[in-house]
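Q: My hope is that you can spare some time for a protein that puzzles me. Underneath my words sits a plain record pairing an amino acid chain with its backbone structure tokens. Those tokens are not coordinates but codes from a learned vocabulary of shapes. Thank you; the sequence and its tokens follow:
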Amino acid sequence: MGGYGVALVGHSNAKVIEAITKQAEKIITCHSSLYNEARAELAEKLAKLAPKGLTKTFFSNSGAEAVEAAIKVARKHTGRTQIVSMTGAYHGKTLGALSATWSPKYRDPFQPLVPDFTFSQFGNVEKLRETVSSKTAAVIVEPIQGEGGIHPAPEGFLPEVRRICNENGTLLIFDEIQTGLGRTGRMWASEHYGVVPDVMCIAKGLGGGVPIAATIAREDVMSSLKVGDHSTTFGGNPIACAAANATLDYIVKERLPDRAAEIGYSFKEKLERIKEMHPIVREVRGMGLMLGLELKFDIRNILMNGIKNGVIMLYSGRNVLRFLPPLVITREQVSRASDILDALIADEEKTKTTAS
């Protein structure tokens, strides 16, 4: 589970603890209207690590807040209102982010949502071409859909999304809240596809477990926001920024994207073997240490029995096991978890066979 993908550098990482402690002895809060060293350092680090051209950052506290900022800056920069999201998308549960989220179970209780949001079929270039127009402020997309079931963008889709946005003067927003910071085997999932967005949203593991998020954009795009257009009391908090600085340093120094690629390859191989052994398994998907195992039946029993056996797993819907472990996970831990999962699926298979 990895704290729903938050524990990229593990739980209570020593470098993160040290950074938090040192910062707490200096200053704990500093509003973003005033200068703070930890915040400035983090902004510089992100400008260097982000995809080319994305140099200006707005700090907030959660993934949903990062998406809210992206939506606002897209509308302000373009003077347009329409936002195009994807079927299967998940971008958060605040009202704007929820408006870009696909699932009716999240949306329906809070209708009417923010107007002028529409959806295009994930992976379908022609549908997107029909949907995007001169009225579209931005297209927002996850390079790999997480909540939607661990679905990587089909080959060739994201370059076409970039082309369609360029043709219509539309901004491209990548939601890398789950996929970013080395999770997929690259620093950013967009690198797998060779596509650079205009705006990128990151959060989850950025603070090593401390709440912090960032909306990173091209300078001309972010500069569309004037003083007072968008602000937050706690965004860019010194302690959160200190934790994020330590986290980024650790990710780079320990080459965690490479580690995610190597360990993820091994983990995916083990999941593929489980699929070969058990007809109950339908498909294995994902990149790096962002993996999904789709079963043909409800996975609730597997989740509950996993906890009893020492493995806490995530889910995407009713039949997909989602794996977002820390990038510092060992091969031994992956092997142990895989063995337990294998046994749990075998037990579930016997139960289903007996019942039928």
